[in-house]
Amino acid sequence: MLDPVLRSAFVQLDLDRGSQNFVENSINYPYSAWWCWFRGSLTRYTSRYTADGILNMGKMHVLSTSQWRRILRLAVDKKDCGSLLDVGAGDGAVTQAASSLFSSITATESSFALSWRLWWKGFTAVQTGDIRRASLCKGKYDVVSCLNVLDRVDNPSRLIRDLKASTKPNGRIVLAVVMPFCPAVMTVGGSRPPKERLPIPGCCDGSKRNSWEECVNALVKLVLIPEGLEVVTLSRVPYMSHGDDRKSLYTLDDAILVLKPTAISSWDHRQPCANTSTCDQKLPV
Q: Most buried of the four, 32, 134, 232, 251, by CB within 10 Å?
């Protein structure tokens, strides 16, 4: 059962037209066996992500445009939410769903092939797996999104701190996490366990498998709150991947959390804004 505070923050999202379009396209135009074989051959020499970028495969769907509006609690007529930083944006298909809501979008990817896809779609693309090293942690973005990346990095706690450091004081972080939490870092030819494991019990660690609700409770209580982040809204959606010759559609169970920074902790080394006008609030508190 969800914590009462999280229950009060829960926003129900329905299968809208944007989500239905992805499902229908996946069912009607699955990847062929030949393309899947070709991708598998490439992963002997590079990561799955880079192989997807080269072949323009691996299409994903998390949120439609209308669902972005709902979780951010935006008025229907509000068209400019300021700046968005999308960390680990893949090929940009997921980012495009939010593109009409922001005046500027910066998208990062560690894969050169996916970074090229982001540039091709018109985003400001930054090829990096470390947003702090790329000088993006300066508290200048109105919204920072990180969708289904937390379980694919070596140091998830540091990533969470960097997301907060990239966000304006009155900004928002949109975090998508597959539950149960089963982290793995993708490598050439496969995957390996991350160097750091978040304290989320019962998630693919050999113990009793906890429910979606129990895992979300643990993520918020043991990870996000200690890092100075407060839950504004919580939603549950299917994380969908384009189908192939074996299955028409692949789905995982996503938790979508909209977070806002709280009191600055001792570990928060965010640089203060040189121009206070850039810290103006763009989203509702």
A: 232
